[in-house]
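User: For my dataset I need records formatted as: sequence, then structure tokens, nothing else. Please produce one.
Assistant:
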Amino acid sequence: MSIIPYSPLQRGLLTGKIKPGHQFGEGDTREGSRWYKPENIESANALLAKIRTRCRRPRCNPLPTRHQLDHPPARHGCVLVGARDEKQVKENVKALDFTLTGDELKKIAQAVSEFQMVD
């Protein structure tokens, strides 16, 4: 059996580009989602900062995608990511430029275990 991770960037939230007070466009369903409450956006951005610092990848947007590719025990051969334009496609492809070490995977797991989200 295989698992294909879908939306490893949580519809843009795990890129770090969405900040509290972000204005979503008309018809964008993210605005009503609990993931996009200001306090959850802050928590997600704090998690990203912590992971990027621990993994020494300060501006690495494809880090969550790479994590899905390297995460044991599954080590997925495929991750479904979305892109709205050519720039996002190029950013997503950068996840193939590196691999995460075992130490980095442990640091990510620790940071994720400390993550808190408000319902």
